[in-house]
Design goal:
With 260 residues, the protein is mainly alpha-helical. Helix content is 39%, strand content 10%.
Amino acid sequence: MSDTTQDKETTQEKAKFKFKCIQCGACCAPRGPVPLTLFDIEYWASKKIINNLFPYMKIQQSPMGLTELVLDVIPITEKDEKDGGEDESDEEAPDTDSEDASAIDDGEKEEGHEEDSTDSSGDDESGDEDSDESGNVKKGKCPMFNSESNKCLIWADRPLYCRSFPLGYDGVNYFIKMDDCPGINAVETMDKELLKQMREDARKEFEGKRLIGITLPILQGIIMRTMEQEQMKMLSKLSPDQLEKLKKVQEIFSEVQEEE
């Protein structure tokens, strides 16, 4: 058998990415924090829903030491676990069909990429996960996931990470974030335009996280410096008696922290 024939058979055997979101909630709970980008923040601000999401946003360090902006998870309750296996909705999930994630045969190639391949990275339903002091991954449920109805509360306005899920992009190749996602192979064929949108969202999410990693540490530094300057101005206006009282309050706080 020639090398050409072997290569052809290998290509034919390669599984195509066929996906349709069935709104099963498998990627919503249990999971780690949901990665966000500045694109998501700008979009939510324009839709005037940013205040609903703001309480759950936080800045964290990834296992690789990168600064991330995430939508933090909330604890999974016994009621959530009971409701989680039931899908009470008769509404059909939005169609997110596409064809082959590894290459779209539409006569066009993306500039700078001769061939994008789709690799399997194993189960990664938690995205960029947060860890506690012991190194254990923090698990919970997305605060925008309704366990009773198995519905995303912001489906039409969900972040890029969720729009492209389970498709991911690492700067070179596309890959599958969650091998056992129930929506994979849920359809026979997939629409090319929808696949192109998923790929575009995956690339945009990758770039967005890169920008977050660059800009957030700088903004944090500026904010901290500004707060310190304002604090120094405030302290300079206090009398000796007020400074002494403030010192006692700080000592009390220190004692409480040590007890905890």
